[in-house]
Sequence to fold (247 residues):
Amino acid sequence: MSNNIKNKVLVITGASSGLGETTARHLASLGARLVLGARRTERLQKLVADITAAGGEAIAVTTDVARRADVEALVAQGVQHFGRIDVLVNNAGIMPLAPMAKLKVEEWDRMIDVNIKGVLYGVAAALPRFSAQGSGHIINVASVAGIKVFAGMGTVYSATKFAVRALSEGLRTEAPEGVRTTIISPGAVDSELKTHSSDQETSAAVQAWYEANQIPADSVARAIAYAIEQPENVDISEVVLRPVAQE
Ligand code: NDP
Fold:
């Protein structure tokens, strides 16, 4: 019986660790064919080797989502290899948390480049193809931090995730006929994200809080699979999931 995932071609950004890697493994186990993007090529190659050894299909494309040409090439290589793409998961993101008063302006720039512009570049690469196919699915990974502002250390990160939810909601209403959109908004999930802060005090507090509360990355992988496996006329517009103990 078809699960509406088997044989679909999925492009996943930020597939070298955390949510992206776990989602790739889970979707491959359900029969999806994968195009995996991130900057750390060796990690992607190891993931491709694992998926292939388990009987799945995947390719790795070294990608910096802050570069539009890289994101175009990621999608183009997916189309070249598999003949089409069906789903784009805009998952790559960074979370260098710090109080605003620390003025980590370069990290603000980087968050805007990766978390917002990276998602927009993905949309720009996939939308014309989905429009031509009359089908497709764009899944954007936002955050609970895109619903409420975690002031004190997460203001700029929250701003980027509010932007992801806003552009995703607009895209849902503007998307060509047959194209689905989904926002995935997780709370604290076990990954490398909690280690991104360059501010020592913030980093220690964030890691301690995560260690006490985080849920496993496969909770997100299952949410993404749930959105994809629905019949094509069902749009799971947003999934919010978090540790029970998280506000
Ligand atoms: P990780 O740090 O484990 O993974 C982040 C991924 O993004 C890595 O694969 C990394 O790959 C990739 N990445 C970072 N910068 C770039 C770039 N410029 N170009 C391409 N890829 C990049 O964290 P998570 O798995 O937790 O994060 C995935 C997404 O989930 C992010 O958008 C994050 O904001 C979101 N999220 C996470 C939550 C959590 O608690 N973990 C909660 C809510 C949302 P590489 O370094 O190899 O490029």
